[in-house]
Write a structure and sequence with these properties.
Largest sheet: none
Helix content: 55-70%
Strand content: under 5%
Oligomer: single chain
Structural class: mainly alpha
CATH class of the domain at 8-141: Mainly Alpha
Number of helices: 9
CATH topology of the domain at 8-141: Rna Polymerase Sigma Factor, Chain: A
Order of helices and strands: HHHHHHHHH
């Protein structure tokens, strides 16, 4: 398996035309669309707004610096999403007052408040979603037996010795499988999700 010391985010910042950009777009488009729908954006408009958010990320990514701050990228992405939402509802006479939904501005402001519950939901759902997507992207890079051992231990919570017996492999092979896949996920996700999350700190 090819290993890289650079995260997906760092590769994009250094080579924005690389295939990694398509991976980031594929990674984030569904998440952005879900959150647009939560703020009453119809499907007919959501595709355009998803593209606007991702284009803004692409255009400004070279200037983004997370500085090692946990959750910096997801906070930056959220700020871009909020900005597009506000512009959307201010444009084309789509003010909340015009459609009898006066709480949309307040709901967007809550998302913008780091201390709010909806902001914590964004953080949690962002990390969970990105991890699931990264798992899907990572699986083809490993042998089926390695992936199965990793999933049984890291995702399903099975004890390594039990998995070793089930699969007819050594305990060391099980531990190595978990270590290799987890390392790959840490590398890919650096700067995107918090490596201190419970997934990465499981024994």
């Amino acid at each position: 398996m090819h290993e890289t010391s650079l995260s997906l985010l760092d590769r994009l910042r250094h080579s924005p035309e690389d295939e990694g950009w398509n991976r980031l777009a594929d990674l984030y488009a569904p998440l952005v669309r879900v959150w647009l729908r939560r703020y009453d954006v119809q499907d007919s408009d959501a595709n355009d707004l998803v593209q606007e958010v991702l284009l803004t990320v692409s255009r400004e990514l070279s200037t983004f610096e997370h500085g090692g701050q946990l959750g910096a990228f997801r906070g930056w992405l959220k700020a871009i999403l909020i900005n597009r939402l506000r512009k959307f509802w201010r444009a084309r006479d789509r003010r909340p007052e015009a459609r009898g939904d006066s709480d949309i501005d307040a709901r967007i402001s809550q998302l913008d408040d780091p201390a709010s519950e909806i902001c914590r939901i964004w953080d949690r759902e962002h990390d969970q979603y990105v991890l699931r997507q990264l798992l899907t992207l990572a699986e083809p890079h490993f042998e089926p037996k390695t992936w199965k051992a990793f999933c049984r231990v890291a995702l399903e919570g099975a004890k390594p010795d039990v998995v070793a017996q089930e699969m007819g492999i050594s305990l060391n092979a099980v531990c190595l499988a978990k270590s290799r896949v987890t390392r790959r996920l840490r590398q890919e996700s650096a700067g995107l999700i918090e490596s201190s999350s419970s997934f990465f700190t499981k024994s």
